[in-house]
Write the C-alpha cells for this entry.
Amino acid sequence: MLRRLILLFCIAQSLAVVAIAQDDVDARIVQINGVTITADSLRAVPYTTVTVRNKYRGVSSSDLGVFSLVCYKGDTLEFTAVGFRPKTYVVPAQIKGQYFSMIQLMVQDTFFLPETIVRPLPSKGEFDYAFTHWKIPDDQYEIARKNTDALMLRAMAYTMPRDGRENQAVYQQNMAREAIYYGQIRPSNITNPISWAEFFDAWKRGDFRKKNY
C-alpha cells in the first residue's frame, strides 16, 4: 500500500512539473497583428516579408500592408520589402498578454542605376548596314548554347588530349583485354565464318571495285 502511495505521489509531481513547463511555454507565445506603412507619407507597404530571425518562419503582408504572425516573446522580427531599407524589431520579453499590435514604419531606399543612352540611327540605309555588318557580342545564353553544342563537344572530345584519369582508364581496359587471352593464342578473324560472310557480301555489292571520280 505504501509503495502505491509513493508511486502515485511521484506521478502527480511529474504531471505538475510538465503542466508548469507547458504553462510557461504558452505564456511566452504572442500573436502580433500589425501593418507596414511608409515613414514619410504613411501609405501602406504591400507584400512586405516579415520573418523571425533564426527560426525560418515568416509571413507576407497583404496588399494593404496588414500581417499577422505568431512568435515567442524576445524574438527578433525582420521586415524586408523591395525599394525599402530592412528593419528589425525585438518583441519585448516582459510584454503582458498574448496579443500585440504594432505599426512598422518603412523608409524608402535609393538605388542608383548606370546611365543608358539610346540614340536612333540617322537613316534606314545605315540601319540596314549596321544590322548586316555589325558584330554584336554574344550574350550569356548564346555562349552557353555554343559551349553545349553536340558537334562542338564531339570535336573537342576527338581533338583534346586525354587527362590522367582517361589515360588510366584506357590502360586498365587494355590490361583487362589482354588478360582474357593470357597464356593462349589470340583468335584471328581469318578463321571466323562471320567475317568471311561479310567479305563475300561486300564483294558481291562491288565495294572493292575501282571507282572513277
Summary: The radius of gyration is 39 Å.
